[in-house]
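Dear Dr. H.,

I hope your travels went smoothly. While you were away I took the liberty of generating a structure for the chain from your last submission, since the lab meeting agenda had it listed for discussion. I wanted you to have the full record in hand beforehand rather than looking at slides cold. The sequence, exactly as received, is reproduced here:
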Amino acid sequence: MKFNPLDILLPRETKFFSYFNEQIEVLIEGCKLFKEFTDNLKKLSDAEFKAAISAMKQCEQKGDKVERKIIDELHKTFITPFDREDIHTIAINVDKALDILNSITQKFEIYKIHSVPSSVSRFSDLLVEMAFELKLLFSALEKKGEIMKHVEKLHSLENTADHHFHWSMAELFDGQHNPIDVLKFKEVYEYLEGITDIMDYIGKLVRGVTVKQG
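The corresponding predicted structure, in token form, is as follows:
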């Protein structure tokens, strides 16, 4: 991004970058919790199962607090590092990704899911990788560095998730599965693919921020 003399005359409040970093760290924590939960699902005792569900809920609540802090600060801050609307939209989408991840985890308890197809593990790997890529993206945005490689990486991972979603759905409907399991995992896959879409969308939002700033 090119130098803007207004940055000296009217210094912008940079605390929002710290808030975004905090928000992304919570998202990373959530993705790692989900991966650990699903990877070890078969081995969990009832108590460990409930503890994992609770841990994800607590993580989601932590994310809600950070999102509220960002929105509250928007109302108090005169000059923001970029458009208020963009800050608001990014914050609510990061929080939305975490909300959906928590919703999926809650479904495991509601539907009494205690084992998952290998496809879920691949999805969890993609979520963790995309969350870490978002961290690099926001670091580059704060430092006015090269963001496009991170935007493109996020989009590439989202394309991979799309292919994996289609393959997983085809495998689910191959006639070899219990109809109840088909209904359960169809919903799980749709939620997981939806999170990857949101992460890719956040990358596009950040790309839009840099385009506006020139």
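Two observations you may find useful: Confidence is low (pLDDT under 50) at residues 1-11. The domain at 13-213 is CATH 1.20.58.220 (Methane Monooxygenase Hydroxylase; Chain G, domain 1).

With kind regards,
E. W.
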